[in-house]
């Protein structure tokens, strides 16, 4: 705790002190203002919307070098996680520009937030990634602490630990152990790095050696035509050979210039390209070159039209060095003759170049050792040796050719680290998420033991009975036997009815609009209502007039056509319209919502009075009386096809073979699915239906809203879901699948002390709510949490009353994930074909 306090204090002081420097750099450096804004957590909304709350794969790399290692990783992650958005974060401006240049598979690229406690908490809570992947050794204490609190797994990829880092990390003591403890898997570059990370506290069973992903980078090749163009652009036409010094640091340029002078004395037409590691040192390096007696120009000047032809060109741009290496005959890698640790030699090696390095390559010790053991790199210890070896290589074409062959061979032999890392990530996530689901289920089961028996009625008794819960003995077998007989009879009747419709013995009615049916083959909640909301908004956004046709289950209104909303004003309350229809109308102020037993009648009314072009049948899969253009079957990934039996022995409304008529299979709540459940749904659906689209969705919690605020305005603002983490609550529900609601709360870190479950569609009265509030006070919980479907049925007097314990509504929205883009493309095409044929033609 003391170490973390000191760390945070130091971080805040440092940021405060360097603010004037930030302001100065903002006036001088292109893009620095955007870097500062994002580092303080102010991200472009369109960027953050691509990844926030969407189970993103978050890869973090500090600078240009790490981005080079990240590029092949992101390519592999895209292959194994095609439907998960990928977020890449960086620290430096150079890394940001390089990421945009070479990482094409990322959905969003941002600057990493400063590791201040309040910033880290805000950003991680806002994005809530599926996994966080620091590249090499990018470990930030506050960020990792918040990731752990939000149950976000961390995996180190392309891990590298330098000798200097091992010594420095030891000073962090307890905080280091805490950081290491948040990492679930360590994919290290070499056995040396693996040994170092274990010495720092990583458990041996979590450490794997994968190799260096930089070997997998698709380094830019330079064709003969591109080489000629680049030489002309750099003003190097007429050069006999080219020497390149890449990523040089202060104190090295003088040594390079001395070696270059020696070569020029033998071969006057040799030219030199210097690429200082810090572009801001360009003027300093220019001065050194002129002081040594050479003519010099910069890449930026040449791009502006300078004539060229100087002895030396300074590469003062970012992201070009990898390509420029292709021009060199002898390459010196900077940072290696001073105690900096060297730089990546794989970029010039990928071009097949003769490479010289200093003996201070401790940051790349494994790669250096690999090349040195193959005699594929020349290592020097001082400036005098650098001059000698440079002269030797320029004078020995055969030796240069041998080195070029060896470097290329090493590159080709060591590829594959990125694929290994991707597979480790797949396995790690599968194990971790299965354990997380099990923990959530255990939390739910533990509070169920203390749950009230308020719902001990026939409905819950029946559900428990058919799912083999708490009913034993002869009576159970007798009841289930009777149920099974009735199930067989029910199945034959359902098959007969469907056959009559298919053969045309019973006529279906048609509407002069596009009809979409949403439904399921099981009783209980699958998420039809929020899915209908999501679909209606999307279609309305495409420019079509849409209406929702609901049967009005448990509505007090009686008649052929009931107008819950005319698309402008609510015409009924929840008691009159039924909870589902009222909630749809409340959420969709621009969409008419109608109730009635015959959808053909309500549909014609919607067309005649509201000009509806699209009708959505909420819970219409079994409403065979009406022709539809698209049948969408919803399958709950938490409660897959019930127990496999038809009513009343099970919860199936019709045989599974009837899913053959679905155009789309939408799996709901896939983030809560047990291991193997999604695959089971895929296989079951495909066994009966070879052509239908399959897509996945999640119910994404947005916020918690006070019941009184929600009652007045369904779009009212609330508190972020992260603020309920750790709070003790009473969960209140009267829905078809209360376990899913409770698991959602558990996944958010909410501690459910007790759940009170009422029958599905139960209308609360004041006596019910008095009992709920009394129970909450007795238990000493901090809040009562319920669903939107329950909120519409709470009496107004209760909503307006001031209670000591707040009542919150969890606001949830449906998000389509895997297959979503293909579905909406298909939907748009079909809508246009039927409703706007002139647009297509």
From TrEMBL:
Q: In which pathway does it act?
A: Glycolipid biosynthesis; lipid IV(A) biosynthesis; lipid IV(A) from (3R)-3-hydroxytetradecanoyl-[acyl-carrier-protein] and UDP-N-acetyl-alpha-D-glucosamine: step 6/6
InterPro entries according to UniProt: Glycos_transf_N (IPR007507), Glycos_transf_N_sf (IPR038107), Kdotransferase (IPR039901), LpxK (IPR003758), P-loop_NTPase (IPR027417)
Q: Does the keyword Nucleotide-binding apply?
A: yes
Which keywords describe this protein according to UniProt? ATP-binding, Kinase, Lipid A biosynthesis, Lipid biosynthesis, Lipid metabolism, Membrane, Nucleotide-binding, Transferase, Transmembrane, Transmembrane helix
- What Gene3D superfamilies has UniProt attached to this entry? 3-Deoxy-D-manno-octulosonic-acid transferase, N-terminal domain, Glycogen Phosphorylase B
- Quote one Gene Ontology molecular function term: ATP binding
Enzyme Commission no: 2.7.1.130
Q: Site annotation (Transition state stabilizer): which residues?
A: 136, 214
Q: GO CC annotation: what is one?
A: plasma membrane
Q: Which residues bind ATP?
A: 522-529
* Ranges for domain 3-deoxy-D-manno-octulosonic-acid transferase N-terminal: 35-217
Report which superkingdom the organism of origin falls in: Bacteria
Question: Which ranges does the record mark as transmembrane?
Answer: 6-27
Query: Which family is this sequence assigned to?
Result: Belongs to the LpxK family.
Q: What is this protein called?
A: Tetraacyldisaccharide 4'-kinase
Q: Which organism is it from?
A: Centipeda periodontii DSM 2778
């Amino acid at each position: 705790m003391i170490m973390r306090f000191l760390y945070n204090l130091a971080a805040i002081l440092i940021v405060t002190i360097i603010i004037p420097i930030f302001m100065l750099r903002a006036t001088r450096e292109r893009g620095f203002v955007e870097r500062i804004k994002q580092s303080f957590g102010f991200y472009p909304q369109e960027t953050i919307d691509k990844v926030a709350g969407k189970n993103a794969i978050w890869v973090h790399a500090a600078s240009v070098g790490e981005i080079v290692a990240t590029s092949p990783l992101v390519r592999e992650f895209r292959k194994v996680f095609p439907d998960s958005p990928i977020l890449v974060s960086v620290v430096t401006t150079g890394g940001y520009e390089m990421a945009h240049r070479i990482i094409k598979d990322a959905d969003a690229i941002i600057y990493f937030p400063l590791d201040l406690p309040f910033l880290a908490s805000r950003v991680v809570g806002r994005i809530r990634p599926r996994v966080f992947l620091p590249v090499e050794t990018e470990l930030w204490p506050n960020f990792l602490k918040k990731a752990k609190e939000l149950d976000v797994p961390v995996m180190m990829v392309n891990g590298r630990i330098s000798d200097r880092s091992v010594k420095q990390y030891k000073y962090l003591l307890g905080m280091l152990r805490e950081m290491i403890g948040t990492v679930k898997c360590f994919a290290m570059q070499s056995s040396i790095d693996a040994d170092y990370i274990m010495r720092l506290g990583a458990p041996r069973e979590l450490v794997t050696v994968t190799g260096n992903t930089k070997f997998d980078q698709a380094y830019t090749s330079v064709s003969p035509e591109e080489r000629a163009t680049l030489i002309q652009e750099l003003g190097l036409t007429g050069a006999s050979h080219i020497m390149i010094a890449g990523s040089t640091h202060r104190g090295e340029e003088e040594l390079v210039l001395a070696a270059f002078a020696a070569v020029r004395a033998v071969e006057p037409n040799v030219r030199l390209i210097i690429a200082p590691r810090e572009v801001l040192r360009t003027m300093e390096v220019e001065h050194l070159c002129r002081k040594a007696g050479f003519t010099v120009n910069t890449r930026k000047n040449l791009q502006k039209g300078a004539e060229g032809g100087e002895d030396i060109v300074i590469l003062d741009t970012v992201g070009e060095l990898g390509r420029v290496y292709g021009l060199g005959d002898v390459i010196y890698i900077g940072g290696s003759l001073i105690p900096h640790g060297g730089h990546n030699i794989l970029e010039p090696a990928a071009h097949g170049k003769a490479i010289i390095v200093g003996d201070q390559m401790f940051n790349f010790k494994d790669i250096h050792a690999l090349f040195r053991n193959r005699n594929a790199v020349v290592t020097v210890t001082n400036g005098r040796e650098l001059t000698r070896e440079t002269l030797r290589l320029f004078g020995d074409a055969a030796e240069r050719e041998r080195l070029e062959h060896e470097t290329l061979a090493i590159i080709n032999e060591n590829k594959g680290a990125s694929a290994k890392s991707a597979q480790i990530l797949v396995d790690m996530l599968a194990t971790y998420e299965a354990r997380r689901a099990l923990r959530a289920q255990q939390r739910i089961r533990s509070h169920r033991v203390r749950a009230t028996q308020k719902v001990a009625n026939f409905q819950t008794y029946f559900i428990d009975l058919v799912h083999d819960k708490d009913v034993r003995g002869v009576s159970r077998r007798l009841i289930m036997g009777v149920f099974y007989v009735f199930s067989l009879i029910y199945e034959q009747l359902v098959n007969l009815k469907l056959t009559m419709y298919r053969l045309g013995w019973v006529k279906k009615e048609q509407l002069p609009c596009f009809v979409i049916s949403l439904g399921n083959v099981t009783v209980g909640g699958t998420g039809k209502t929020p899915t209908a909301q999501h679909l209606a908004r999307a279609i309305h956004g495409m420019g079509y007039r849409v209406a929702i046709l609901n049967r009005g289950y448990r509505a007090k209104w009686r008649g052929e056509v009931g107008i819950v909303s005319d698309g402008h004003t609510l015409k009924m309350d929840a008691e009159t319209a039924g909870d589902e229809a009222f909630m749809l109308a409340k959420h969709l102020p621009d969409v008419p919502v109608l109730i009635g037993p015959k959808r053909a009648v309500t549909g014609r009314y919607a067309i005649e009075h509201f000009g509806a072009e699209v009708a959505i049948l909420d819970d219409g899969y079994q409403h065979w009386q009406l022709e539809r253009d698209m049948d969408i079957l919803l399958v709950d990934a938490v409660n897959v096809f019930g127990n496999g039996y038809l009513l009343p022995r099970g919860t199936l409304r019709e045989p599974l073979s009837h899913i053959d008529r679905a155009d789309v299979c939408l799996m709901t709540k896939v983030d809560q699915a047990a291991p193997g459940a999604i695959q089971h749904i895929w296989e079951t659906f495909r066994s009966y239906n070879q052509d239908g689209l399959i897509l996945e969705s999640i119910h994404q919690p947005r916020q918690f809203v006070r019941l009184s605020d929600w009652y007045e305005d369904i779009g009212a603002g609330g508190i972020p879901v992260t603020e309920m983490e750790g709070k003790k609550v009473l969960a209140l529900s009267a829905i078809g699948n209360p376990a899913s609601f409770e698991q959602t709360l558990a996944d958010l870190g909410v501690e459910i002390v007790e759940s009170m479950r009422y029958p599905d569609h139960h209308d609360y009265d004041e006596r019910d709510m008095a009992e709920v509030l009394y129970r909450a006070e007795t238990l000493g919980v901090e809040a009562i949490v319920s669903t939107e479907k329950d909120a519409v049925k709470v009496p107004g007097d209760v909503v307006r009353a001031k209670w000591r314990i707040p009542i919150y509504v969890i606001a949830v929205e449906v998000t389509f994930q895997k297959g979503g883009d293909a579905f909406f493309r298909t939907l748009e095409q079909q809508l246009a074909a039927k409703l706007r044929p002139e647009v297509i033609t």
